[in-house]
Write a structure and sequence with these properties.
Belongs to the exbB/tolQ family. The chain has six helices and no strands. It is mainly alpha-helical.
Length: 187
């Protein structure tokens, strides 16, 4: 299947009842690099889901514990009380920002893997041209598909990952700021 037929194939693949077969065909067209890219994407989405679950369930519980402990304190102005508060804020920041740098690194790897797919696909095209000559376009179409699909997939994965990573960072910063305001409030 040539890369020109990709756009005709994609809607049929999405409407196809056996999506696993369609995905398998797509992955085979993209070559080995596309499988590596899929593994990176799966890993960063796993980490994103973990962060989202943490923000929705675990952090609110811990936040309420910190706030109730702070409000129970009879004295909130001493050096000792401020040190406790700063320790909680530091712990909150550490827990909120956990894995965000790893997600950022994995997202930045995606376009590089796409480019690696481009290089390997072009090597395949040049190999076909050297062995069979350049007169048969059908032989070169597989190599061109091998070159373009990983690039496209890498860019799409990176764009989606960049957007979600930015939203996660913003959500974590907002929660950290709200916690700090809550802990700075007086009785």
């Amino acid at each position: 299947m040539s890369s020109v037929n990709l756009f005709a194939w994609l809607p049929n693949a999405l409407a196809h009842t056996d999506w696993a077969v369609s995905l398998q065909q797509f992955m085979e067209q993209g070559g080995q690099v596309l499988w590596w890219l899929a593994a990176v994407v799966a890993l960063y989405w796993l980490l994103i889901v973990e962060r989202a679950l943490y923000l929705l369930f675990s952090f609110p519980k811990q936040r309420s514990v910190w706030i109730s402990e702070w409000q129970k304190r009879s004295e909130q102005h001493s050096w000792y009380a401020r040190s406790i508060r700063e320790g909680w804020l530091g712990q909150a920041q550490s827990e909120l920002m956990q894995n965000l740098n790893l997600i950022k690194v994995l997202v930045s790897i995606c376009p590089m893997l796409g480019l690696l797919g481009t290089v390997t696909g072009m090597i395949s095209v040049f190999d076909v041209m050297a062995n069979q000559g350049s007169s048969n376009p059908k032989l070169m179409a597989a190599g061109i598909s091998l070159a373009t699909l990983p690039t496209m997939a890498g860019m799409v994965a990176a764009l989606a990952g960049m957007f979600v990573h930015a939203r996660l960072v913003k959500a974590c910063q907002l929660r950290e700021l709200k916690l700090e305001k809550s802990l700075r409030s007086q009785k």
